[in-house]
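Regression test case RT-17, inverse folding.

Input:
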């Protein structure tokens, strides 16, 4: 065993242990009857007054399904069944189709507009649930949401997808995903998560429609979302793709670097794959040059004009850094990317995992910012839980025996 093999073996063992530790914490959100906890505070207490978010619900379904499939876990599978049932019975709009945004604490409908982002996460989650269970209804729901996005949100004139519509799929004035976002008709973030949903759906149940839509979304990144000059992602747009962005998001850059390559790889178009590989490596390189602290943490964002830099990153950016830099290492063979991946993981272990706490903190210790909660609408096991599973998959591919089998094949 070479020193590199030994290092990767140690990392794999650490990540597998972390994957199980995270599952042990998130499985405790299982609530009585037809519910999961909607919010957990910094002391681990459930907030009974919190609204139930479709984002948390779909990300729980995706996470428990992926965990159950990878680790062949009956406990994960049971929780995936429960999450799927809750989404079907409570978040699904039985009159108009699609997924509403939020429920009251008593599980009655509260906010009924429909973000494309939420429909995409529903498709992503039910596609993964189908991969776990081979439940035909799960695949039907994933395809329904895919068809709904293509019918109602796809921009026939300029390409891409609009942000949000009413419960009846009519235009609404406020299309923001959250209070932090610009009220713009298109965003990088929505396109990124439509991309990952379409990638998984095409991977498990390919058909000409999913291939066309996946290619379309990849092309939107190559033509409009990735800035030709800087190489970074543009974040917000007018309908005609006029750039409205003021900042660069390092976490999204590194996340997109591997999700975009995965999409092109699943699509299997050699021409697009080559262009995407170049863009993915460039995104990773830009983050490695401008978006990493001395101790390996991924910065949050910087002003496009260079006037400001927010160095206090969030937990999800560190998770995506681990996967994104492992992806760049696989694509290039350059050891420095592996070093960045290891540094991101060490940063998490040092700054985001207080002793005795099962879940990562939102902000790093010593960053001067207080976490809003440990679990909630925007704090789910999707980023860090997925990072553990993705990294383990990639490390498994890097093992000498796997490389030998590939060469023999």
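Golden output:
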């Amino acid at each position: 065993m070479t020193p590199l093999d030994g290092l990767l073996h140690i990392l794999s063992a650490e990540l597998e242990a972390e994957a199980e530790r995270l599952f042990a914490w998130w499985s405790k959100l299982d609530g009585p009857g037809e519910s999961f906890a909607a919010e957990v505070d910094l002391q681990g207490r459930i907030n009974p007054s919190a609204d139930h978010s479709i984002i948390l619900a779909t990300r729980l379904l995706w996470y428990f399904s992926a965990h159950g499939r990878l680790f062949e876990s009956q406990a994960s599978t049971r929780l995936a069944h429960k999450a799927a049932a809750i989404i079907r019975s409570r978040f699904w709009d039985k009159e108009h189709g699609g997924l509403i945004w939020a429920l009251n604490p008593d599980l009655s409908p509260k906010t009924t507009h429909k973000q494309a982002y939420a429909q995409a996460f529903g498709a992503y989650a039910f596609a993964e649930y189908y991969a776990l269970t081979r439940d035909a209804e799960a695949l039907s729901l994933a395809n329904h949401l895919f068809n709904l996005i293509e019918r109602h949100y796809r921009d026939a004139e300029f390409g891409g997808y609009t942000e949000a519509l009413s419960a009846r799929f009519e235009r609404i004035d406020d299309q923001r995903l959250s209070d932090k976002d610009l009220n713009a008709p298109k965003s990088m973030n929505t396109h990124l998560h439509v991309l990952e949903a379409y990638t998984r759906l095409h991977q498990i149940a390919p058909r000409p429609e999913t291939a066309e839509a996946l290619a379309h979304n990849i092309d939107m990144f190559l033509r409009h979302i990735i800035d030709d000059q800087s190489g970074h992602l543009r974040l917000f747009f007018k309908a005609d793709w006029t750039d409205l962005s003021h900042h660069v998001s390092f976490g999204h850059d590194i996340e997109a670097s591997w999700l975009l390559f995965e999409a092109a790889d699943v699509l299997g178009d050699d021409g697009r794959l080559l262009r995407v590989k170049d863009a993915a490596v460039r995104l990773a390189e830009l983050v490695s040059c401008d978006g990493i602290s001395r101790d390996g943490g991924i910065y949050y964002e910087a002003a496009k004009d260079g006037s400001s830099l927010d160095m206090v990153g969030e937990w999800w950016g560190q998770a995506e850094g681990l996967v994104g830099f492992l992806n760049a290492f696989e694509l290039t063979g350059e050891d420095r990317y592996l070093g960045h991946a290891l540094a991101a993981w060490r940063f998490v272990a040092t700054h985001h995992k207080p002793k005795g706490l099962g879940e990562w903190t939102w902000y790093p210790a010593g960053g001067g910012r207080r976490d809003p909660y440990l679990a909630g609408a925007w704090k789910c096991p999707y980023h860090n839980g997925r990072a553990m599973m993705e990294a383990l998959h990639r490390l498994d591919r890097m093992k000498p025996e796997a490389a030998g089998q590939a060469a023999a094949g």
